[in-house]
Structures are given as C-alpha cells and as structure tokens.
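Quick one, probably user error.
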C-alpha cells in the first residue's frame, strides 16, 4: 500500500472528484453533509486532537450520543493516527472508570451533561483531559496532513459486551478495518449510487465499521437517523437503496402495516446481523416485500466473517459462507480438531479481518487463539452440504440436559414456527436430575394468547424428548441489549430457581 494513511488513504481514493457537490449524509434536521464537509470537519477534529497533545497511538475514548459530528471525530482520529475507542452510551460512571484505567486514554470525549461528573471520574483514574465534542470543533482549520499509518498499526479498541466478567478491549488495526470494508463493499455491490439507511448506534462494529466504512470506501451516501424509528425508516425508504439492521429492525417493521413491496420497491439490499434472524422473519419479509434479507455473521474481534451470497440463494436461518480472504473451520471445542462437514463444533476464523489480540491481556489473547493462528469465536455452528453456515448458539449458551447437548437455536426455531409466537429464547437452568433443564421463554405476537401446555404439546412432534422444554414461561417481551441481542444471562438469573424442589 502506498497510501500515507492506510484507512483514510482508501477513503480519499473513493472520494468524488467534486466533494463539495456530492452528498455524504442526509440528516434528520434537514441538513445535508457533503464529502467536502467530511474532509473539513474530520480535519477540524484531527487538528483539535493534535492541539490537545494526542500523539499517534494514543487512545481517544468517546462516549457521546450518535451524531454526524461523532462520526467525524472517528475520522479525525483515523487521520491523526490516534486509537479510537467508542463506548456504549449506556455505560455508567463506574463502568467508565474501569475503561479509563484499562485503556489510559489521552483524551476522553463526553456529552456536555456528563462533563462535570466525568472530570471527577477521570481525575481518579489518571486521565488528564475530558472534553465535549463542541469544545473540539473550535479550531476550524480544514487543512490537515494525514498521519502516515501502516496496515498493522492500531486503529481502534472496541470493548466486547462482556456478558461474563470484565469486558476486554479488542485491538483492531487500520488493515483490519480497511480490508473488511473493501470485502463487504465488493460482496454486497456497494457503489457511489447507494443511499444507506443508517439507524444503528455507532459505538459498535456494526454501525460504525460495517456500515460507515463500507459507504465511505465507495463514495456512497447515508440517510442518518438517530435511532431506530419505524416512521423515520418508512419515510426514508423511497429515497434509499439499502439498509443494515439488527433483527429487531425487521420484526418491528413487519409489525407495521405500511411495509409492503411498493414501499421497498427502490431498495436493492436489506442486511441483517449482530444477532440471529429467525427463519420466520426472513420468510415473512420476503412474502411482504419480495426481498430476501441478506444475513451475515461477525463479531467485535473479527469484523465480518460470513455472508449469504448477493446473487445466489440467501438461505433463511443461515449466515452464508466465509467471506473472501476469511478462512473458516468448525472444530471440536475441546481438542481443536477440525470436524467433518455437517458436525456441530466451534467456529474458528483466520484472515486479515481478525484482530491482533486483547488490549493488555496476553493471557486471554493466548487462550482464544490456536497455535496456527485461528481465532476461536465461541460460536457453535455446522456447515451444510452446500457450504452454508448455521449458528446453533454461543458455546456458553449450550444446554446440557441429562448428558445430551441441546442447541438453543434448534429449539427456538421450532417454537418460533408455532402460531402466535413472536420470539423465543431457550436457556439451561439448574435441575437436580438433569444437570440443566431445557427452559423456554416465549413472547406472543400482538393479540395472541399463548399457553405453556399447548406449546409443549405442539413441540412434541418436532423435537426429540430430551430437547423438549421442561418449562415454558410466557412473557411480554424478551430482554435485549442495544444491539438487539437477547440477554440470556438475565434470563438465566430470572429463572434460576425454576426447578428447585422439582423431583421429576
Ligand atoms: P458482537 O461482538 O457484539 O458483535 O457480538 C458478536 C456475536 O453476535 C457473535 O459471536 C455471535 O454470537 C452473534 N452474532 C452476530 N451475527 C450473528 C448472526 N447473523 N446470527 C447469529 N448470531 C450472530
């Protein structure tokens, strides 16, 4: 690569010839952002970082509400060679204190209303500077010479959602981000003509890297929405070509009667990821709109690993095949031996998209890589005869009941297919006889009434006895995090006593 800055150099290459007259983003307040604005405002931020003493390789931690300026700060950090560290807006002061101590950022950027409180937290944690986004845009110089960065320089630290123990900082390089965006742009046929509906948060790999880098690398544009809002998305669709979302975007839109083939007529691509999209939702979307949602699979540590094909069959309930340049294998979780096609094991991946390790945590890094360089994802899956990967659940969500492995995704798919079911989660709960009892938590569709005994009876036809839920709890909605992932840890806690005193 000859670019001075490995990532921003590629973005410059994709820049329209007249950046001042080409739209980059349409904002909700009616403003338009051109590619010239991208260059100028990211330069303001890059200049501000340098003025504040941020050196290449220094961490810039950011916890701010989603805004186009926050995205420009990311680009400013890329241009200045800083390590961008986005943080979930939901984190409390105590959680932020941990990230500050762990990452030792040279600068922490926060929302104005949290400035005073966080300055105190920062002082305790040894972080010298805390500023707001506004304070960083006082220097309006649009000239900035991008700091040279090579493919293997550190670009970002993304803290994993940390469902068990402290969250770990995944270190991703300029090369990791650039290659994944280029692969996705090619695989999903993004061009300068694309208009992407962006309603995801930007503290996570999906909304920040998958969505924004892909658009920036192809000179396309976005309709920039603060958050998911069915009205705003429906209003945007006639002007858009594509959308990237988590499964709940699709289920919520399906619940809106305005969703039909006419509304989505100009769209060319709907992508889903970050959590499993049920086969039911995939099929319903196709019936209602004529579009097959393209499901892909990735994670914080690796960016995107697999995708359903653009041209070929987008198979419901699968995450497609390994992306170009990604090597993927299914292995025995205990021995690491590669398994035969069709067998269930842990997904392991290797490729230029895979992170370099956990920040200041060489022990964890060593635990999660095999000696031959493959990263152990922790996701259990099998590959069908046509090469499609189906995820059956996280390793830690596997239920072992009476010595048998029960894969939650299989039981959830059977429950989701029953009439009146909106969604379900299957968990293992301590059980005196079985070790764990298969337990289902099910939410009904609007207006439907579900009954535990009926669900269990209906499942008998589809599932072997040992897979049948011993209890089915009916709830209004399942607990999800901001990325739409069902929080099984919360459910396991809620139902942990479901079988205490159960002699069966
Ligand atoms: P995160 O690091 O927050 O992006 O979470 C990554 C995890 O989300 C993966 O390890 C999977 O368990 C899950 N995930 C992402 N995409 C999918 C998908 N399409 N289907 C099922 N699980 C997914």
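Nope, works fine. Designed sequence:
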């Amino acid at each position: 690569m000859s670019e001075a800055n490995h990532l921003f150099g590629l973005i410059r290459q994709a820049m329209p010839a007249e950046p001042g007259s080409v739209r980059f983003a349409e904002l909700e307040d009616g403003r338009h952002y051109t590619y010239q604005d991208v260059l100028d405002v990211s330069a303001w931020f890059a200049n501000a970082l340098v003025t504040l003493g941020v050196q290449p390789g220094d961490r810039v931690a950011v916890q701010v509400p989603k805004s186009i300026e926050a995205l420009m700060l990311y680009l400013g950090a890329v241009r200045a060679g800083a390590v961008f560290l986005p943080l979930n807006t939901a984190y409390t002061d105590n959680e932020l204190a941990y990230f500050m101590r762990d990452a030792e950022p040279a600068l922490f950027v926060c929302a104005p209303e949290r400035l005073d409180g966080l300055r105190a937290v920062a002082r305790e944690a040894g972080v010298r500077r805390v500023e707001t986004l506004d304070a960083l845009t006082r220097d309006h110089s649009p000239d900035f010479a991008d700091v040279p960065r090579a493919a293997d320089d550190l670009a970002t630290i993304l803290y994993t959602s940390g469902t068990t123990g402290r969250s770990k900082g995944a270190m991703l390089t300029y090369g990791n981000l650039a290659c994944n965006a280029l692969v996705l742009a090619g695989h999903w046929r993004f061009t300068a003509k694309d208009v992407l509906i962006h309603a995801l948060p930007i503290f996570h790999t999906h909304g920040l890297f998958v969505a924004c880098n892909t658009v920036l690398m192809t000179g396309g544009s976005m309709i920039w929405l603060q958050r998911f809002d069915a009205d705003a998305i429906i209003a945007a669709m006639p002007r858009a070509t594509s959308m990237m979302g988590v499964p709940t975007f699709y289920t919520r839109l399906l619940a809106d009667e305005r969703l039909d083939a006419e509304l989505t007529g100009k769209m060319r691509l709907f992508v889903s990821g970050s959590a499993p999209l049920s086969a039911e939702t995939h099929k319903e979307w196709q019936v209602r709109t004529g579009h097959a949602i393209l499901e892909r699979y990735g994670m914080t540590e690796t960016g995107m690993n697999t995708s359903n094909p653009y041209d070929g069959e987008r198979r419901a309930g699968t995450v497609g095949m390994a992306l170009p340049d990604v090597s993927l294998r299914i292995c025995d979780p205990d021995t690491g031996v590669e398994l035969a096609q069709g067998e269930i094991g842990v997904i392991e991946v290797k490729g230029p998209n895979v992170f370099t390790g956990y920040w200041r945590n060489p022990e964890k890094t060593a635990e999660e890589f095999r000696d031959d360089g493959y990263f152990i994802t922790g996701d259990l899956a099998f590959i069908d005869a046509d090469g499609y990967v189906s995820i059956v659940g996280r390793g830690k969500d596997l239920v072992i009941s009476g010595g048998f492995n029960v894969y939650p995704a299989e039981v959830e798919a059977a429950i989701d297919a029953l009439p009146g079911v909106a969604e379900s989660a299957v968990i293992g709960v301590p059980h005196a006889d079985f070790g764990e009892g298969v337990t289902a938590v099910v939410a009904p569709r609007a207006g439907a009434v579900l009954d535990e005994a009926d669900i269990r009876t209906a499942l008998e036809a589809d599932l072997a006895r040992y897979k049948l839920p011993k209890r089915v709890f009916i709830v209004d909605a399942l607990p999800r995090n901001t990325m739409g992932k069902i929080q099984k840890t919360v459910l396991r806690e809620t139902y942990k006593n479901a079988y205490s005193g159960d002699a069966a």
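The CA atoms of residues 205 and 300 lie 6 Å apart.
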